Amino acid sequence: MHDQTIAELAAALERGECSSVELTRAALERIERAADLNAFITVTPESALAEAEAADAARARGEAGPLTGIPIAHKDIFCTEGVRTSCASRMLENFVPPYDAFVVERLRAAGTVSVGKTNMDEFAMGSSNETSYFGAVKNPWDRQAVPGGSSGGSAAAVAAGLVPAATGTDTGGSIRQPAALTGISGLKPTYGRVSRYGIVAFASSLDQAGPMASSAEDLAILLQGMAGFDRRDSTCVDRPVPDYRAQMAATDLRGLRVGLPREFLEAEGVDAEVSGGISAAAQALGDAGAEVREISLPNAGMAVPVYYVIAPAEASSNLSRFDGVRYGYRCEAPADLEDLYKRSRGEGFGEEVKRRIMVGTYALSAGYYDAYYHKAQQVRRLVQQDFARAFESVDVIAGPTAPSTAFPLGAKADDPVQMYLSDIFTIAVNLAGLPALSVPAGFGGGRPIGLQLIGSHFDEGRLLGAAHGYQQITDWHRQRPPVEE
Question: From edge to edge, which strands make up the β-sheet containing 436-444?
Fold first, then answer.
């Protein structure tokens, strides 16, 4: 069962070939056997089996949907009522929320079974899953390599077949980059398509929740369950949710206009294996009838510096609430209020989080706001305009998700700039608020390569259709890493 997609498992449940309780027990057993991956922070076997029994009862009453009884995992950044939500930080090590995030609510209502919370970079700040207070996650394809970040635990869990799907969040590539490095499919929806209510905030103008699974079809099924308007998130857009699976099925690669950005093809530091994999993917799309052409995103090179002004600035504001007074970590025996603030934050946050708070606070400080934050927002507009012009002539944009395959654990831990460049192809999408996904597109040195596809605002159906079409003519998404049985 561990190598089947959601669509295949749902069909098996419908035919009575297995029950949700059996699927859930199998998932829990695989999670225990693969504990060395460190993909999970919290596993919830008792509540999972109770939810599975309820799902089987709903199916017996004829009330099952496409997600009823499917075991999934949630990134430990989503608030879950009664279940610890640590954000992989000492600051929230023992925080138990009194409510569910919107995404958790929706997927629970759709009948999914939550087996636990996955590991991640602390407060979603990282590209390797090495900044977690609970230790690094390992890549199932090579346990000496990183799985990417920040949703690395979710990616590793899906890649290893511990669960068929998981949730993630994407602020600068945190769904797509780990999906690429672990050989799975991951979707960042349009900003505002999925409510951010109940997600521990990192950078509010960039954060977006999305699904991670084995195939584009599974992403469509999951997005259907996650998307929708929510008054509790003022940035959530009130517009109808289309039938993504139907839109996906209706998309034909023949005549689809696919743009290859010149700036992506000529970027420095891209591994030859990755370039070769993307060229082969473009050739496959062209052979299937797509019109592949070169385009330009002239300001793409400014995306990383712009992001590392805006995101830390918003993080410094969002994380100011963790002061040791109201909730979260509190230092031992503070001498006075100032000592309480300083030591609680100094001891509760990890080094990467503190680095970004310092950078963000500097960018927002008096005398520097216009020079850094305001200027970064102006350049962000140029990046957005580049994409708008590109989508006048193409339907989707294709390119690499990451400049390399999974790199060794510790290889970039002491060089923050090199780590930040891991997201060189994903960050511009967040600045523009666009939907984008990553799907497997081959291997380099035995490690997966990711193909990124980018769509225009709220065009997830066609984007998923392009990815699904690609997965009908290739079998990269069917490859699985060796996991001991």
Answer: 40-43, 113-118, 71-75, 165-169, 209-213, 185-188, 436-444, 447-454, 396-400, 257-261, 291-295
Mean pLDDT, range 123-134, rounded to an integer: 97
Let me know: does 193 contact 460? Beta carbons within 8 Å. Answer: yes
Secondary structure of residue 94 in the 3-state scheme: coil
Can you tell me the distance from the alpha carbon of 439 to that of 219, in angstroms, rounded to the nearest whole number? 11
Residue 482, pLDDT above cutoff 90: no
Q: What span, in angstroms and rounded, lies between the C-alpha atoms of 331 and 135?
A: 22
Dihedral angle of Cα 336, 340, 346, 347, to the nearest 10 degrees? 120
pLDDT in tens, 436-467: 999 999 999 999 999 999 999 999 999 999 99
In angstroms, the CA 380 to CA 309 distance is: 11
Look-up: residue for tokens 């600045």?
A: 431
pTM of the model: 0.97
Active site residues: 75, 150, 174
- Strand 113-118 and strand 40-43: pairing? antiparallel
Closest CA to 214 of 160, 252, 173, 147: 160
396-400 and 436-444 strand pairing = unpaired
Q: Is the pLDDT of residue 317 over 70?
A: yes
Condensed to tens digits (0 to 9), the pLDDT of residues 215-257 reads 999 999 999 999 999 999 999 999 999 999 999 999 999 999 9
209-213 and 257-261: which strand pairing? Answer: unpaired
